[in-house]
Amino acid sequence: MDRHLGPHFSIPAGSFFVFVLLSTSLALPIIDRFLYPRWRKLTGLGPTPLQRLGLGHIFNVLGLVGSALVESRRLHVVRAHDLEDQASSVVPMSALWLVLPLALVGIGEAFHFPGGVALYYQEFPASLHCTATAMTALIIGLKFYLSTAIVGLVRRVTEWLPDNINSGRIDDVYWMLAVVGVVNFRYFQLCAWLYKYQNVGKEDTDSGSPSSSS
Protein backbone atom coordinates (compact mmCIF):
# COMPACT_ATOMS: atom_id res chain seq x y z
CA MET A 1 0.00 0.00 0.00
CA ASP A 2 1.05 3.58 -0.56
CA ARG A 3 2.46 4.88 2.73
CA HIS A 4 3.40 8.33 1.47
CA LEU A 5 2.31 11.53 3.17
CA GLY A 6 3.21 14.11 0.61
CA PRO A 7 6.02 13.75 -1.92
CA HIS A 8 8.91 13.42 0.53
CA PHE A 9 7.70 11.45 3.55
CA SER A 10 6.68 7.82 3.86
CA ILE A 11 5.29 6.32 7.06
CA PRO A 12 7.39 3.31 8.13
CA ALA A 13 5.31 0.16 8.04
CA GLY A 14 6.14 -0.72 11.63
CA SER A 15 4.98 2.68 12.84
CA PHE A 16 1.31 2.14 12.03
CA PHE A 17 0.81 0.61 15.47
CA VAL A 18 1.29 4.14 16.78
CA PHE A 19 -2.25 4.88 15.60
CA VAL A 20 -3.54 2.34 18.13
CA LEU A 21 -1.62 4.03 20.93
CA LEU A 22 -2.63 7.48 19.75
CA SER A 23 -6.33 6.63 19.58
CA THR A 24 -6.14 5.05 23.03
CA SER A 25 -4.49 8.17 24.43
CA LEU A 26 -7.15 10.39 22.87
CA ALA A 27 -10.06 8.14 23.83
CA LEU A 28 -9.15 7.80 27.51
CA PRO A 29 -9.81 11.43 28.54
CA ILE A 30 -12.90 11.62 26.32
CA ILE A 31 -14.34 8.46 27.88
CA ASP A 32 -13.37 9.51 31.39
CA ARG A 33 -14.52 13.12 31.23
CA PHE A 34 -17.51 12.98 28.89
CA LEU A 35 -18.88 9.48 28.33
CA TYR A 36 -18.84 8.11 31.87
CA PRO A 37 -20.40 11.23 33.50
CA ARG A 38 -23.24 11.13 30.99
CA TRP A 39 -23.64 7.41 31.54
CA ARG A 40 -23.96 8.13 35.26
CA LYS A 41 -26.56 10.85 34.65
CA LEU A 42 -28.66 8.50 32.52
CA THR A 43 -28.43 5.40 34.71
CA GLY A 44 -27.64 6.77 38.16
CA LEU A 45 -24.53 4.58 38.32
CA GLY A 46 -21.18 4.55 36.60
CA PRO A 47 -20.35 1.67 34.26
CA THR A 48 -19.17 -1.45 36.03
CA PRO A 49 -15.77 -2.94 35.20
CA LEU A 50 -17.47 -5.78 33.33
CA GLN A 51 -19.45 -3.31 31.24
CA ARG A 52 -16.22 -1.52 30.34
CA LEU A 53 -14.67 -4.83 29.35
CA GLY A 54 -17.70 -5.64 27.21
CA LEU A 55 -17.43 -2.33 25.36
CA GLY A 56 -13.77 -3.07 24.75
CA HIS A 57 -14.69 -6.43 23.22
CA ILE A 58 -17.20 -4.76 20.89
CA PHE A 59 -14.72 -2.19 19.61
CA ASN A 60 -12.07 -4.85 19.08
CA VAL A 61 -14.47 -6.88 16.94
CA LEU A 62 -15.39 -3.74 14.99
CA GLY A 63 -11.69 -3.13 14.40
CA LEU A 64 -11.28 -6.64 12.99
CA VAL A 65 -14.29 -6.17 10.71
CA GLY A 66 -12.85 -2.86 9.53
CA SER A 67 -9.48 -4.49 8.85
CA ALA A 68 -11.18 -7.25 6.86
CA LEU A 69 -13.04 -4.71 4.73
CA VAL A 70 -9.89 -2.67 4.07
CA GLU A 71 -7.95 -5.80 3.12
CA SER A 72 -10.76 -6.95 0.82
CA ARG A 73 -10.58 -3.59 -0.92
CA ARG A 74 -6.79 -3.84 -1.16
CA LEU A 75 -6.99 -7.27 -2.78
CA HIS A 76 -9.56 -5.94 -5.24
CA VAL A 77 -7.10 -3.20 -6.24
CA VAL A 78 -4.32 -5.81 -6.51
CA ARG A 79 -6.36 -7.91 -8.93
CA ALA A 80 -7.47 -4.88 -10.91
CA HIS A 81 -3.82 -3.97 -11.54
CA ASP A 82 -2.56 -7.57 -12.02
CA LEU A 83 -0.20 -7.37 -9.05
CA GLU A 84 -0.82 -10.85 -7.61
CA ASP A 85 2.66 -12.09 -8.52
CA GLN A 86 4.51 -8.88 -7.66
CA ALA A 87 5.19 -9.08 -3.95
CA SER A 88 7.38 -5.97 -3.86
CA SER A 89 5.02 -3.74 -5.83
CA VAL A 90 3.25 -0.80 -4.19
CA VAL A 91 -0.50 -1.23 -4.37
CA PRO A 92 -2.09 2.06 -5.53
CA MET A 93 -4.20 2.44 -2.39
CA SER A 94 -3.45 4.73 0.52
CA ALA A 95 -2.28 2.97 3.68
CA LEU A 96 -4.20 5.59 5.66
CA TRP A 97 -7.26 3.38 5.17
CA LEU A 98 -5.74 1.30 7.97
CA VAL A 99 -6.05 4.17 10.44
CA LEU A 100 -9.79 3.68 11.06
CA PRO A 101 -9.66 0.00 12.10
CA LEU A 102 -6.53 0.66 14.14
CA ALA A 103 -8.29 3.56 15.85
CA LEU A 104 -11.25 1.30 16.68
CA VAL A 105 -8.87 -1.18 18.29
CA GLY A 106 -7.28 1.67 20.25
CA ILE A 107 -10.66 2.84 21.51
CA GLY A 108 -11.41 -0.73 22.53
CA GLU A 109 -8.20 -0.80 24.56
CA ALA A 110 -9.26 2.43 26.27
CA PHE A 111 -12.31 0.59 27.56
CA HIS A 112 -10.77 -2.83 28.03
CA PHE A 113 -7.60 -2.34 30.03
CA PRO A 114 -8.87 0.23 32.57
CA GLY A 115 -11.94 -1.95 33.06
CA GLY A 116 -9.75 -4.98 33.61
CA VAL A 117 -7.53 -3.20 36.11
CA ALA A 118 -10.60 -1.93 37.99
CA LEU A 119 -12.09 -5.43 38.10
CA TYR A 120 -8.90 -7.07 39.35
CA TYR A 121 -8.19 -4.37 41.91
CA GLN A 122 -11.74 -4.41 43.30
CA GLU A 123 -12.24 -8.14 43.36
CA PHE A 124 -8.81 -9.43 44.36
CA PRO A 125 -8.07 -9.64 48.10
CA ALA A 126 -6.14 -6.70 49.53
CA SER A 127 -3.02 -8.85 49.78
CA LEU A 128 -3.11 -9.38 45.99
CA HIS A 129 -3.63 -5.78 44.88
CA CYS A 130 -0.07 -5.59 43.54
CA THR A 131 -0.73 -8.75 41.55
CA ALA A 132 -3.95 -7.22 40.25
CA THR A 133 -2.13 -4.26 38.75
CA ALA A 134 0.31 -6.63 37.02
CA MET A 135 -2.45 -8.66 35.36
CA THR A 136 -2.71 -6.27 32.42
CA ALA A 137 0.96 -6.71 31.54
CA LEU A 138 0.58 -10.48 31.87
CA ILE A 139 -2.43 -10.50 29.54
CA ILE A 140 -0.58 -8.39 26.96
CA GLY A 141 2.32 -10.84 27.01
CA LEU A 142 0.02 -13.84 26.64
CA LYS A 143 -1.76 -12.06 23.79
CA PHE A 144 1.44 -11.74 21.78
CA TYR A 145 2.32 -15.41 22.32
CA LEU A 146 -1.20 -16.45 21.34
CA SER A 147 -1.19 -14.30 18.21
CA THR A 148 2.07 -15.92 17.11
CA ALA A 149 0.56 -19.36 17.64
CA ILE A 150 -2.56 -18.43 15.65
CA VAL A 151 -0.48 -17.14 12.74
CA GLY A 152 1.54 -20.35 12.72
CA LEU A 153 -1.61 -22.48 12.82
CA VAL A 154 -3.27 -20.54 10.00
CA ARG A 155 -0.16 -20.86 7.83
CA ARG A 156 -0.07 -24.62 8.39
CA VAL A 157 -3.71 -25.40 7.65
CA THR A 158 -4.60 -22.73 5.05
CA GLU A 159 -3.04 -20.80 2.19
CA TRP A 160 -4.25 -17.45 3.49
CA LEU A 161 -0.83 -16.21 4.65
CA PRO A 162 1.77 -16.86 1.96
CA ASP A 163 5.02 -14.92 1.77
CA ASN A 164 3.45 -12.84 -1.00
CA ILE A 165 0.41 -11.28 0.65
CA ASN A 166 -0.88 -10.10 -2.73
CA SER A 167 -1.72 -13.72 -3.54
CA GLY A 168 -3.02 -14.48 -0.05
CA ARG A 169 -6.30 -13.94 1.76
CA ILE A 170 -5.51 -11.89 4.83
CA ASP A 171 -9.09 -10.64 4.71
CA ASP A 172 -10.24 -14.19 5.51
CA VAL A 173 -7.89 -14.20 8.49
CA TYR A 174 -9.50 -11.02 9.78
CA TRP A 175 -13.00 -12.41 9.21
CA MET A 176 -12.03 -15.57 11.08
CA LEU A 177 -10.70 -13.51 13.99
CA ALA A 178 -13.85 -11.38 13.97
CA VAL A 179 -15.98 -14.52 14.27
CA VAL A 180 -13.77 -15.77 17.10
CA GLY A 181 -14.14 -12.35 18.72
CA VAL A 182 -17.93 -12.54 18.53
CA VAL A 183 -17.93 -16.03 20.05
CA ASN A 184 -15.56 -14.82 22.76
CA PHE A 185 -17.82 -11.84 23.45
CA ARG A 186 -20.86 -14.08 23.83
CA TYR A 187 -18.92 -16.28 26.24
CA PHE A 188 -17.85 -13.15 28.13
CA GLN A 189 -21.49 -12.05 28.35
CA LEU A 190 -22.43 -15.41 29.87
CA CYS A 191 -19.62 -15.22 32.41
CA ALA A 192 -20.47 -11.59 33.25
CA TRP A 193 -24.13 -12.49 33.72
CA LEU A 194 -23.21 -15.29 36.13
CA TYR A 195 -20.56 -13.32 37.98
CA LYS A 196 -21.38 -11.89 41.40
CA TYR A 197 -19.29 -8.97 42.58
CA GLN A 198 -17.50 -9.65 45.85
CA ASN A 199 -16.86 -6.00 46.70
CA VAL A 200 -19.99 -4.13 45.68
CA GLY A 201 -19.19 -1.19 47.93
CA LYS A 202 -15.81 -0.72 46.34
CA GLU A 203 -17.37 -1.00 42.92
CA ASP A 204 -19.85 1.78 43.72
CA THR A 205 -17.06 3.91 45.14
CA ASP A 206 -15.07 3.45 41.96
CA SER A 207 -18.09 4.31 39.83
CA GLY A 208 -18.54 7.53 41.77
CA SER A 209 -14.88 8.49 41.84
CA PRO A 210 -13.82 11.85 40.39
CA SER A 211 -12.36 10.11 37.34
CA SER A 212 -15.79 8.68 36.54
CA SER A 213 -18.09 11.51 37.53
CA SER A 214 -16.22 14.76 37.08
TrEMBL record:
| InterPro entries the UniProt entry points to | MFS_trans_sf (IPR036259), POT_fam (IPR000109)
Membrane-topology annotation of the record = Multi-pass membrane protein
- By its UniProt entry, which Pfam families does this protein fall under? PTR2 (PF00854)
Q: What is this protein called?
A: Protein NRT1/ PTR FAMILY 2.7-like protein
Q: Which UniProt keywords apply?
A: Membrane, Transmembrane, Transmembrane helix
Query: Could you give one GO CC term from the UniProt record?
Result: membrane
The listed locations are: Membrane
